[in-house]
Amino acid sequence: MFAIKGYRGTGYFIPRRKPIGGQLTDQQRDYNARIGAIRVPIERALANLKTWRILHTDYRRPLPTYNDAFHTAIGLH
After folding, report:
1. Does the pTM of the predicted model rise above 0.70?
2. 10-residue mean pLDDT series, the chain (77 residues)
């Protein structure tokens, strides 16, 4: 489970913050990059869902999977 950057109370995979007046170590920067690489597609999917692009553009997947995709999009919204 990944936590949003602003919610620090979960204890899950939260990006490391730069200390005041300091720098992150190479290990911490790598950790943040790996978390970001996982979170970016999720954030983009949610942004597309919020603008309903998923539902108002042509469906490019096999037609039998449309119902599952539609119900998933509605469930996420």
Report:
1. no
2. 54 78 92 86 78 68 81 77
Q: Contact, 24 vs 32, CB < 8 A?
A: yes
CA pair distance 72, 37, nearest whole angstrom: 23
* Other beta carbons less than 10 A from residue 15's beta carbon: 19
Burial class (CB in 10 A: 0-12, 13-18, 19+), 42: exposed
- Alpha-carbon distance of 50 to 43, in angstroms, equals 10
Is residue 59 a contact partner of residue 66, using CB atoms and an 8 Å limit? yes
Contact 77, 49 (CB under 8 A): yes
Which pLDDT does position 29 carry in this prediction? 92
Q: Which residue is listed with tokens 């996982």?
A: 38
